[in-house]
Amino acid sequence: MKRWPEVVQIKEVGPRDGLQNEKNRVSTADKVAWINMLSESGVKEIEFSSFVHPKWVPQLSDAHEVGRRIKRNPKVRYSALVPNRKGLELALGAGIDGASVFMSASETHNLKNINKSIDNTYPVLEEVIGEAKKAGKHVTGYVSTVFDCPYEGKISPEEVIRVCDQLMEFGVDDLSLGDTIGTAVPSQVEALLEAVLRRYPKEKIIMHFHDTRGMAIANILSSMEYGITRFDSSIGGLGGCPYAPGAAGNVATNDILYLLHGMGIETGIDEKKVQEAAFFIQNKLGKSLPSKSLAYAAAQQ
Amino acid sequence: MKRWPEVVQIKEVGPRDGLQNEKNRVSTADKVAWINMLSESGVKEIEFSSFVHPKWVPQLSDAHEVGRRIKRNPKVRYSALVPNRKGLELALGAGIDGASVFMSASETHNLKNINKSIDNTYPVLEEVIGEAKKAGKHVTGYVSTVFDCPYEGKISPEEVIRVCDQLMEFGVDDLSLGDTIGTAVPSQVEALLEAVLRRYPKEKIIMHFHDTRGMAIANILSSMEYGITRFDSSIGGLGGCPYAPGAAGNVATNDILYLLHGMGIETGIDEKKVQEAAFFIQNKLGKSLPSKSLAYAAAQQ
């Protein structure tokens, strides 16, 4: 039998990547109450909001207030998405512990998402990363569309590494590689990790899967075979797919915990508390979240 | 990178294991039309119904008529569930190519499901298997609750093998090992297959996963690592969990095809036709099926 990791670290991205794809607005008070529940679940990092311009993500326009109002657990790193220097300043004012910068491995996706070419995105991120590090903050570099792009199709490991190299050079602490449209299958994960782990230590790599086609848990399993022990996930599988309204979002924290704890892998996270937080936001949004283990738990009650 | 199988064989169990857990009745004409669609999808085996007493599964009380009315594709094996000699006679009259017998690796689950102890089930199955083989039919032995039992908890590989040994001795052609309540995680799959494959060639073993907690695709991946190339699945993930109304059923044929075809593994099955068959039954049942890749496809339309 195989050797699986003993400990895996989960970053909860529901309040950011999850919520940003939900149409029904959640009030600031509810977000704060919800993040406070997450803070007590044992999770070590929460991405609590995004400081992109509110025009792009109205759901997260209260990022500053949320950051100021949440009750901080000293064992949790509170991070937020920052697009540029202005966003970083606002985020610092809201008391972030970590900044997440982002760009795409696909030229076209980067252009559509950030409105700049990959080459023109670099100087912006170099500045943000430098400033955030100067302020003593942890910086994660998100690279999106690392497997497939909705516009360009397959993305090669070389295209991903080209972007990773730049972000590492600018000083990010780690890289989160995103299956943004949830299309990857395990053989693609293997091919990418073969290339990436020749270049970077596995501790620097976080895998970020979306469960749009139900492949995320299998992709996480494949990643763990390569020694990856850091994953992003979203309570209940919150968040959708901007390219297919109604389809599933980020891999569900509930499902990844079911997998890991079932395999005897420690996370330090209390499944019951995660379940309660999932029921809470499900009620606020007025819809069932896509996590199958959550649906099972709900049916049992 | 790992060596994955080149070809995998799928048995479509939607019309039996799927439908038997659906409350909304589907008319015989609709079942026939639906199975005829499945017959043209490229799948090599369809379990079209069950010949257990209609009192237990009213949804499948028209098994005989369905068997007589479906249009046979000579490339497809049409099998049905048979509980005993009487059921086998009815099934033979309905023109089955294969008979599936069943029992549980858990004493308590066997008692609750079949109303007999494991030891008292053996003579019944010995007779059915003997008669079915005499009639020249393919016989599959389903063993349920091979990982966990809703009454007894963990089931050991030894308990599973004890039942497998008897069924093989009685003459079944192959064994389908069922995660009946959909609780297994990949480390459990590894432990069971380590034991089972020391005893039987992998060609004799079919894995039968339910996706109740969203683990089925990862469990299939683990099974393939052990060389398993035969899986049961259900269109759209049809069928629920009798222990948790509202929870997911069998692993979805649509999701397993997404996985396999994405990894370059052949099945001979046309994904589009499976999708159409899934939309067909979804409409007849008046509800969305749990397959995430199906939900994605629906959202795209």
Automatic annotation (TrEMBL), chains A, B:
<dbReference type="GO" id="GO:0006552">
    <property type="term" value="P:L-leucine catabolic process"/>
</dbReference>
<dbReference type="GO" id="GO:0046872">
    <property type="term" value="F:metal ion binding"/>
</dbReference>
<protein>
    <submittedName>
        <fullName>Hydroxymethylglutaryl-CoA lyase</fullName>
        <ecNumber>4.1.3.4</ecNumber>
    </submittedName>
</protein>
<dbReference type="InterPro" id="IPR043594">
    <property type="entry name" value="HMGL"/>
</dbReference>
<dbReference type="GO" id="GO:0004419">
    <property type="term" value="F:hydroxymethylglutaryl-CoA lyase activity"/>
</dbReference>
<keyword id="KW-0479">Metal-binding</keyword>
<dbReference type="InterPro" id="IPR013785">
    <property type="entry name" value="Aldolase_TIM"/>
</dbReference>
<dbReference type="Pfam" id="PF00682">
    <property type="entry name" value="HMGL-like"/>
</dbReference>
<dbReference type="InterPro" id="IPR000891">
    <property type="entry name" value="PYR_CT"/>
</dbReference>
<keyword id="KW-0456">Lyase</keyword>
<dbReference type="GO" id="GO:0046951">
    <property type="term" value="P:ketone body biosynthetic process"/>
</dbReference>
<comment type="similarity">
    <text>Belongs to the HMG-CoA lyase family.</text>
</comment>
<feature type="domain" description="Pyruvate carboxyltransferase">
    <location>
        <begin position="8"/>
        <end position="275"/>
    </location>
</feature>
